Batch of 2 targets.
Target 1
Amino acid sequence: MTAAPVVSVRGLRVYYGTLRGTVRAVDGVSLDIGAGEVLGLVGESGCGKSTLGRGILGLLPDGAASKGDVIYGGRNLVGMSEKDLRRLRGPDLGLIFQEPMTRLDPLMRIEDQFQETLEQHEPGLSAREVRKRSLETLGRMGIPPTRFRQYPHEFSGGMRQRIMIALALVLRPKLLIADEPTTSLDVIVEAQILRILADLRRNFDTALLLITHNLGIVAEACDRVAVMYAGKIVEEGLAGDVFAEPAHPYTRELLRSTISLDTKELHSIPGAPPNLITPPPGCRFHPRCPDAMAVCPTKEPVEQHLAHERRVFCWLRGPEQAIPAGGTSPLEREEIAVAEEA
Amino acid sequence: MQRKPELAGGHASPSAHDSALVSIRGLKTYYSIRGSFAQRLIGREAGHVKAVDDVSLDLGRGEVLGLVGESGSGKTTLGRTLLGLVPATEGSVVFDGREIVGLRDRDLRELRRKMQVVFQDPHASLNPAMTIEQSVGHPLEIHKIGTSDERRRRVAETLDTVGLSPPEQFMVKYPSDLSGGQKQRAVIARAIILNPVLLVADEPVSMLDMSVRAKILELMLELKREFDLTYLYITHDLATAKFFCDRIAIMYLGRIVEIGPSRAIYENPRHPYTKALLRAIPEPDPRRKVPRDLPRGEVPDAARPPLGCSFHPRCGQAFEVCGWETRDLRDLLEQRWAHQVEEQYEAERALFDDISVLDSSAVHARLRTGRGVPGAALAGLLGSIRDENPSEPFWTGVEQVATETDAVDIRWREPLSPRATGVGDVQVECHLYDDAALEEAARRREEGSPHTTVGGTGTPTRQGAPEGSA
């Protein structure tokens, strides 16, 4: 990335309290997203990827607290008042959810939903401009003007999701977070939506964080990818590089366990992701890692930079001087039972 | 690690086996749509959805058949009809020599010991108030099998078989204590505890994380070998189906559009829909980019299916006989307008009066022009749309455009319904593989002489043919 990033996340933590203890859903995450760039965020369910996406926008679950920095436009969103945050959401920060039907008002025509959104955030616009902007954005998503006055239930699932995306884009946000935007859609419609999202960078110059559990989607639609495990980023780099040659064992195992058309042999990662109340010490992946070494449960891995802006958190990548004597010998541990799984 | 089991013998058709375990013939399952309150008062139905529309297939003993389709394809209804959970409207389902269609509930219950089902959502499949022992042992209780001690032993054995061991540790737990993968193992344990011969698995892994899917599929393959099971694997996911299935049936809007051995389907897909599905699967391959040549639109409303071949509105290869009609013109216009600036759209829209005449499905439409607009102007617009993209398949279906003073009269060619045709070792329901349909299309192409004007103001029409040529 050459230009200054649209958003810069540094050491972000999002913790929330439950009856069983404090859940460290996001635990010290740093990442940048540039203008016109698509960053994919992948991980298994419960790894904290959705909480991270919401945490960046300051949308926290009840009883949650966040720490660290989310620098956007020279200001830190962490600790910002709810009033200031609300002003930024929409024109600056957008969010696309998984279930479009639950986010569109079923009693409002599409036209009215756009009008309300635009009037709220850009009160200076004339009625003509509101209409023009709305139709133009909808058109880019393939929604014809003839259907502008219809209600959400009159549209198919894929069209509703495109309307949702248009509703977020009509305000021309600089940062857009899309949380599993295609999960409930069929594969052809999913590909249609991905094509639209991949084209966003050209048309809108938006910085996009695309959260998904589907590695195939990342490979096809993203410039860079960040892999998350148990509240932490374990590897980040150019999508092509990471997929061609994963640097972290978790990334490698996740890729191997993905069932694709090329799958000749089934593969799975033993064990299950840890709970985030009492995560394992040291590297959180060490209990499941086929390459774990003696050092892994004792010290948390440090960020290592590889070629092409790749960074990875794994003792296999060093630094050697930080590994205690004998730390590179294979880790001895007990067998993981078959049923210990997610 | 599990390898894909080699197929025993030629699986071209299950008739290669001694006899089919399940034989489905001409099966139709229709759901009636309830209309308005007034319509219901006078006992009238607003129509029906053909969820399963004339399906015939065999399921061989020990075979894994993948039933693949998008949501709304009817794949789940087909599975449920096969289990007798949904009454068939017409046709026959013979399971292990017995006809299921029309069977009384009591007889069905007896048969259900032999056929079990695993649903998609493991969280919703287990009663949250029952322990795992109670849930998994429930079928034994329903069918009054064994003493309570014997049942307990059987539950423990079965839990062990599905990998929930030590069983004692899981028997006392409630579903909420289990992870998604563990719950699905418990659901599978409950399904196999009666020693069934057929297991219908409806999206058994699609709600699970990638890292768990492989484990559940492995378990199902092991069980199949150990207990000689036959599977109907219902899924939208062609990638897991490829690994898992001996044969694949592709469903679209209630019909099986392609069926054959897995290898043939994946290596050489014939139906344009199968091709599109395969192309659309996101692959974790860094060299691949988002595919551009995707079918447009979505699965249409099954209550109002397209004429002719149901896939034709989305098909890039559709031609004269595939069933072009009014609604396709509306889609064409709307897609054009979606990408225009507002002024241009307003100008073009003003040429039309009411375009909702295109909403009812027909092969004839009389499009009135907007106030004060001559029919020739509207015909001119249609002509220029066609000239901009002459390869658009829609135009192959237009038989005649007649210009009137204040209207344009459009007639489409008669649709043909596709028939199942054998191509190699697969069956495809697509006109592209049907010689009769191709000949008919060629005949229509020749008959359609351009520049025939019919009754209008003399403006040349795009495509004309004598009345009743179809």
Target 2
Amino acid sequence: MQSLVSFKKVIVVSGNFPILTGLDFETGPGEVVLVKGRNGAGKTSFLRAVAGLLRITKGSALVLGVDLISNPADARHRVGLLGHETFLYEDLTAKENVTFVLKATRSNISKVDAALSAVGLTGRLSDLRVSSMSAGQRKKVALAALLAREPELWLLDEPHAALDSWTREVLDTAINSSVANGATVLLVSHEPLHGSLMPTRVVELAGGKVITDTRDIKPVVAEKVPL
Amino acid sequence: MWRDALLMAGKDLRIEFRSKVTLNQILPFAFVTLIVFAFALDTSPGTLQKVAPGLFWLAVLFSSIFSVDRAVAIETNDNAGDGLAVYGVDSGGIFLGKVTSVFVQLFLLEAVLLVGVVILYGPAIDGWPLVLLSAFFATVGISAAGVMYSQLASGSRAKQTLLPLLLIPVTSPVLLAATKSWQDAFSSTASLGDPWLRLLIVFSVVYLALGAVFYGSILEA
């Protein structure tokens, strides 16, 4: 099986503190990996390391065939990261933010309206500045950008936080649809997963390394998102 | 890189024109600096006409600290800078985009400020081409060095005090060259072969090149 993410004995140090301590992880296309662990276990750092945002201190790390040690930036544009931060500009509107993301990633900007509509940001809401939006609405804007981008690797850090049940279902359906098309999802969540989204694998981290890896949980049911 | 630079410049300018910080805060600050320095020196017309170029460029340099700080701060809100990294935006493009955005804001500010200088101090300007070219390259130099050092300082907890400490000494050659060049332009010795103009061109080209090459390393650090 082709590896989309291959981490071998990865160590990441922040300041003098090791945040990933010899982490081994491998995943291929079409998987939904639920990453679990207590606070401070290294879940967010793991996702940021996969996104190429943390410098790998030691070990080997390949993401989408790119060596993160020699070329940490080369795989980033193929990765979608939705985390605690939304990466949005407060003085731009929802539509302007999504358009900027699509232009920056050289994606098709004709999908902007459809993506915003898919998360329920239509009409006046799409022209509202992000500074006037609630936390949930901001997350919807970031989600719309992710849906429109269709990345090969989705890195989702507590993606359901601040989302209403309808938008959670939109996100779950979008994830399932992308996985059916060959994308891979690494999902950090403290909440039990409801609805249509089921992980195919559960990985538990503690002290910056994988301590349990449970496979073949349940296959994902593919469903197209109407974009 | 150029495509990313245009994208970044467009985005930053849209944010700046919408927030109106340059118009409502930086421009009044520049005028206040201009007037306060004049009071501190001498209010006689002869002296003011003589020192007008220096006062103008001091006001621009101090104002530029706010502009470059804001240009970098845009990317720290909600960690938007990490977003740019994930989107694969070229670091040279980010640098050139931010320099362009700061350049446009400062150049507009200088245009308004120059009107103020002419009205307040009444200098006779003979060499307009030299004034404009010097202003162009001095502004490019200040913008390029400013964006680089502002990004360097942004990682520090004391960035508000560190930025002027880094930027003012580094841009002092621009201050000197732009002042001398304008003094020449304000007198009958104005010439496009002015040696101070050449220094401004060299400074701006060097800092543009340094930024385009090293900005990525500064971002990753």
